[in-house]
Design a protein that fits this description.
It is built from 14 helices and eleven strands. It has 319 residues and is α/β, with parallel strands linked by helices. The protein has two domains: 223 residues, TIM Barrel (Alpha-Beta Barrel); 81 residues, no CATH class. It has an eight-stranded parallel sheet with strand order 1-9-8-6-5-4-3-2. The longest helix has 18 residues.
């Protein structure tokens, strides 16, 4: 049995497992399935307008009576409107990212919400605690999607962050098995957040083409790109090659940034991850994709994580 921790107590969940709030793939169906299986499901609001976010929150509330969260990237101009909408609809757990944890934490607390924030360095984790968040998610550069520039790995990030914070600490990046959950807890985490592993479930809204490509991915088939704009880990395809070629040109930094922004345009992630364009779409996924070659239901995945966790724990028990 995966152990209870300070995180499970705080969030009122059975297992210390949070599903990443990923754009285009983590809607109501996935979030509800994770919550029903004992973790914390998360609706990824980063790709949603207000109407779509409302639809997914209401649908998730129909599909589960368990707690679930909404992830809101603060970098977007509509973040405050999304937060206000989610509060009106009764959401009590928020995970913020890509911005200052100070921005909305007091406001969310005044509306009786629990707040977590995603960051990528031990010092920033400490600043999150100072800002008043209830838990902090430290994400190693193995993770898919938008990422920190510092390239700290999860294995070194957990213990260094643990030394600096007393609030529940959640590890993210490269975690996709029961063994990895046990290792994260052993290093000082109170729980884990998994994104890529939940992309590869039947309930995720990722296009089947995208899922099939992830199944075929090897250990060297993702790269952290666009550090001079917004860092993101991409699965290799034609779009990635265009990004790579631009990044290795002799353009000035400012010209290179503008060229990357123009290349990225709008709707690239939707085209790749939701619509299945494997050539010109943006395919955000983590390094753990090199180990994933199955597509279980969320419940099957949680059951397997339990089995792996306990088998690993028993292996290292000293009589």
């Amino acid at each position: 049995m995966i152990t209870a921790t300070a995180l499970t107590k705080l969030l009122n969940i059975k297992f210390p497992i949070i599903q990443g709030g990923m754009v285009w793939v983590s809607g109501a169906k996935l979030a509800a399935a994770v919550s029903n299986a004992g973790g914390l499901g998360v609706i990824g609001a980063g790709s949603m307008n207000l109407e779509l976010l409302k639809l997914h929150i209401l649908k998730a509330q129909q599909l589960t009576s368990k707690p679930f969260a909404v992830n809101i990237p603060l970098i977007y101009s509509g973040a405050q409107d999304q937060i206000e909408l989610a509060i009106k609809l009764g959401i009590k757990i928020f995970i913020t990212s890509a911005g200052s944890p100070k921005k909305f934490t007091d406001y969310l607390h005044s509306n009786h919400a629990i707040v977590g924030h995603v960051t990528s360095t031990p010092l920033m984790a400490q600043k999150c605690e100072t800002a008043g968040v209830d838990f902090v998610i430290v994400e190693g550069h193995e993770a898919g999607g938008h990422n920190g520039r510092d390239e700290l790995t999860t294995m070194v990030l957990i213990p260094q962050s643990r030394k600096l914070v007393s609030i529940p600490l959640v590890a993210a990046g490269g975690i996709g098995s029961g063994e990895a959950i046990l290792a994260s807890l052993a290093l000082g985490a109170d729980g884990v957040q998994m994104g890529t592993r939940f992309v590869m479930t039947k309930e995720s809204s990722a296009h089947q083409n995208f899922k099939d490509k992830i199944k075929m991915a090897g250990p060297l088939d993702t790269t952290l790109c666009m550090k001079e704009t917004i860092p993101v880990r991409l699965l290799h395809n034609h779009f990635y090659e265009q990004v790579r070629d631009l990044e290795t040109t002799n353009l000035s930094t400012s010209d290179k940034q503008q060229a990357l922004i123009k290349l990225l345009g709008s709707g690239r992630a939707k085209k790749g991850m939701l619509e299945g364009d494997l050539k010109d779409g943006e395919l955000e996924i983590g390094q753990i994709s090199g180990l994933i070659n199955d597509l279980p239901t969320v419940q099957q995945l949680i059951d397997q994580l339990e089995i792996e966790f306990e088998a690993c724990r028993q292996k290292f028990l000293v009589s």
